[in-house]
Inverse folding.
């Protein structure tokens, strides 16, 4: 939503005593007037009427009324000009002024935003120079009778310091054309000369602007009659300091300068060399650090032009001036180099809090106070009435039931989020709204609006969809579990049943619960808001293991129950759902030669001895299914005597379902490594071939990265015996499948051998040996501590 054209066109009368809050109301009301799209580069504005050709006139932008005011100038004739014009964003309009300053040029003007007046000082006519002070309130000129004033001068630099509330005037030329270097300030009552050691060198025809972001008055260039200058200075109210400018416009005088607080930049336009033989047609931007030349189309070269920044329309307005072709009467506009925008972060839903983001140029966020407005959308422009602004922050306006966010200061980060609670009222469902920023500079009383508004419609809150997470999902008793509500549609009440026995155990949003008994627990959550409720039950949500831990030397990994899709199309079919209902442990690695030797007293492996370094930590192989079962039985017996085997559990070979569940570790791809298996991820297809073992050999267990369950070598190294007999999969879901009594014994995982390609190592790939007593140096095993299964 743009601020609009000036108040003269709107017929609004504002008295000089207008308060700051009334100024705010006036700016808001300006939204009713037609919009002028800002130019994005220098674009000529052609108007039916315009000031006559002239240069060395003066202009300033009236923040209260949204117009640019221009007075006087020189057209080469015998008499100086004394007319007053205003530009309202669309048109130049002449003002009838029975009382006015005498005709002049080379005078200075600035807008006093504290008192709502344009201030004019000094200037030149054919008879000499002036030292008078005049004020324009939008309706009439008034000469001020002051006890003190700067000596008569022309071509001085002047800008309004909105923080300190004074017009700052520097330098100029005296009646005898001597260059001046004095600094004066006007507070609306009197002029006061300031002591300024270290001020810029004497000069006149310098360009001047107030930098409202860095709170300082800028003076650029000018000349002293002998030379023109290209230096940049800043006055902070106490001292002058010269700015370092690694790049800068060429030295010049009679340039024009204005400041854009929306983007935090000053713009310099035109100027001339020392003899006016060369005029400049360039424009430059100062961002507080460096000058940057503005590209694109430019107005014709000129000097003695005027340049103001039209705050409401976010554009610079440059006009008039002179070049070798003569005096000019054209008007040009330059749009913003930055943008301010509104965006929806969380859309408005009845009964909830909407969130909107206001993005602004970070450099321009200093000391700005910002609200977010939420207003019913209208088919045409409409007023935003805030009668008297009785409160700052959250308030309502009766006419449109308008909402404002809690106002906050912009922090200079470039983005601010606002929260707007939407009333719990189903009747406002479906209403169309516009969201806008109200960004007020408290020092200059300048409003900045986002270039866009965010158009939104309120939605009705829906019943919540229950959801939650639990951490950890498994462990030994006593087990402390943290539950976190992740339900949608903003529930306002929660009922937790941590063992699904029908009893509400907690009404907190994110409770914790300690499980003291072993078991597999289902958890139920029921949530509600003011329009409905929802619930979810998670089966096997928490698994509490028996307190007996496996022998740490066996290096086992705890495996929680779960459901997965077993098999793979084209590899092992049909693909079917399998649920493992009980927790178990699986060996982190394949059984090593050292482990087998220690328990069974022998080592049948091929890869041992001097030709197989680190053989003890390689997997045992050349072990039959029968021998692997004997190892498990011996291990069970020893661990039972040590009291480390839970009741109903045994050490055994994994079932095919247990093996594939652990191999996949939550993946659904062909390998747990993803869509491919490489030589750096597993020992397969002869990847460790050598001069001794040409077809490949085993690797030390754990040489390759584990899967998501922490298990190593589920692909390759040695294939691994499973407990099951061979049988074709049956369709449909099954729980804890186990096959026995048929012909052959199964093995999984692929091996080191040259003919065991990546396809042989797939998570779903199945193989079988016809006889339980057969063995191979490609075949080993790993153990599980799991519920008893008798093959």
């Amino acid at each position: 939503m743009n601020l609009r054209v000036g108040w003269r066109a709107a017929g609004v009368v504002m008295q000089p005593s207008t308060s700051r809050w009334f100024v705010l109301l006036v700016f808001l009301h300006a939204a009713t007037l037609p919009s002028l799209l800002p130019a994005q580069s220098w674009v000529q504005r052609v108007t039916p009427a315009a000031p006559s050709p002239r240069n060395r006139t003066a202009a300033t932008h009236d923040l209260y009324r949204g117009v640019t005011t221009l007075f006087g100038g020189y057209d080469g004739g015998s008499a100086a000009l004394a007319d007053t014009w205003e530009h309202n964003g669309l048109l130049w309009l002449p003002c009838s002024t029975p009382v006015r300053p005498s005709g002049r040029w080379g005078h200075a003007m600035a807008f006093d935003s504290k008192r709502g007046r344009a201030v004019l000082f000094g200037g030149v006519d054919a008879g000499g120079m002036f030292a008078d002070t005049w004020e324009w309130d939008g309706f009439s000129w008034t000469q001020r009778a002051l006890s003190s004033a700067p000596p008569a001068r022309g071509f001085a630099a002047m800008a309004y310091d909105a923080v300190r509330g004074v017009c700052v005037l520097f330098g100029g030329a005296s009646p005898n054309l001597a260059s001046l270097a004095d600094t004066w300030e006007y507070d609306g009552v009197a002029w006061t000369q300031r002591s300024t050691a270290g001020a810029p060198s004497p000069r006149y025809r310098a360009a001047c602007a107030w930098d409202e972001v860095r709170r300082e008055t800028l003076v650029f260039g000018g000349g002293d009659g002998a030379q023109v200058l290209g230096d940049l200075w800043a006055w902070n109210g106490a001292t002058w300091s010269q700015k370092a400018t690694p790049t800068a416009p060429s030295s010049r005088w009679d340039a024009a300068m204005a400041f854009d607080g929306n983007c935090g930049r000053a713009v310099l336009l035109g100027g001339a060399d020392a003899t006016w033989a060369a005029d400049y047609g360039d424009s430059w931007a100062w961002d507080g650090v460096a000058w940057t030349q503005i590209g694109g189309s430019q107005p014709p070269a000129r000097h003695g032009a005027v340049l103001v920044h039209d705050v409401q329309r976010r554009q610079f307005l440059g006009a008039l001036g002179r070049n070798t072709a003569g005096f000019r009467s054209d008007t040009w506009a330059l749009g913003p180099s930055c943008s301010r925008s509104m965006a929806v972060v969380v859309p408005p839903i009845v009964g909830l809090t909407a969130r909107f983001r206001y993005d602004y140029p970070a450099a321009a966020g200093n000391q700005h106070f910002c609200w977010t407005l939420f207003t019913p959308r209208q088919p045409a422009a409409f007023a935003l009435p805030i009668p008297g602004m009785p409160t700052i922050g959250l308030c309502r306006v009766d006419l449109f039931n308008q909402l404002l966010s809690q106002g906050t200061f912009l922090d200079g980060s470039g983005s601010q989020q606002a929260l707007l609670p939407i009333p719990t009222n189903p009747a406002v469902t479906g209403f169309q709204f516009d969201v806008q920023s109200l960004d007020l500079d408290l020092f200059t009383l300048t409003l900045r609006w986002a270039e866009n508004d965010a158009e939104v419609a309120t939605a009705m809150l829906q019943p919540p969809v229950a959801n939650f997470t639990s951490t950890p999902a498994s462990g030994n008793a006593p087990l402390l579990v943290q539950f976190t509500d992740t339900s949608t549609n903003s529930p306002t009440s929660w009922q937790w049943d941590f063992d699904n026995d029908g009893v509400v155990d907690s009404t907190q949003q994110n409770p914790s619960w300690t499980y003291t008994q072993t078991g597999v627990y289902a958890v139920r959550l029921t949530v509600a808001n003011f329009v409905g409720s929802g619930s979810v039950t998670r089966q096997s949500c928490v698994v509490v293991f028996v307190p007996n831990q496996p022998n740490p030397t066996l290096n086992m990994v705890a495996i929680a129950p779960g459901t997965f899709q077993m098999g793979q199309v084209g590899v092992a079919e049909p693909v079917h759902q399998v649920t493992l209902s009980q927790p178990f442990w699986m060996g982190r690695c394949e059984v090593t030669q050292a482990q087998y030797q220690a328990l069974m007293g022998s080592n049948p492996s091929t890869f041992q001895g001097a030709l197989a370094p680190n053989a003890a930590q390689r997997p045992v192989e050349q072990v039959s299914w029968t021998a692997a079962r004997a190892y498990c039985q011996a291990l069970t017996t020893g661990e039972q005597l040590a009291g480390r085997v839970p009741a109903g559990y045994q050490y055994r070979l994994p079932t095919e379902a247990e093996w594939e569940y652990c191999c996949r570790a939550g993946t659904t791809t062909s390998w747990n490594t993803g869509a491919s298996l490489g030589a750096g991820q597993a020992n397969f297809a002869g990847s460790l071939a050598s001069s001794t073992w040409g077809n490949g050999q085993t690797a030390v267990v754990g040489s390759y990265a584990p899967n998501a369950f922490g298990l190593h070598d589920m692909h390759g190294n040695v294939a691994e015996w499973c407990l099951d007999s061979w049988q074709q999969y049956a369709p449909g879901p099954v729980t804890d499948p186990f096959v026995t009594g048929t012909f052959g014994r199964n093995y999984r995982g692929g091996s080191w051998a040259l003919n065991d390609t990546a396809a042989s190592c797939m998570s779903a790939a199945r193989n079988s040996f016809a006889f339980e007593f057969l063995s191979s140096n490609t075949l080993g095993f790993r153990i599980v501590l799991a519920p008893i299964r008798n093959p």
Q: What stands out?
A: Confidence is low (pLDDT under 50) at residues 1-39, 380-401. The chain has five helices and 54 strands. The first helix runs from residue 7 to 10. The first strand starts at residue 43 and ends at 44.
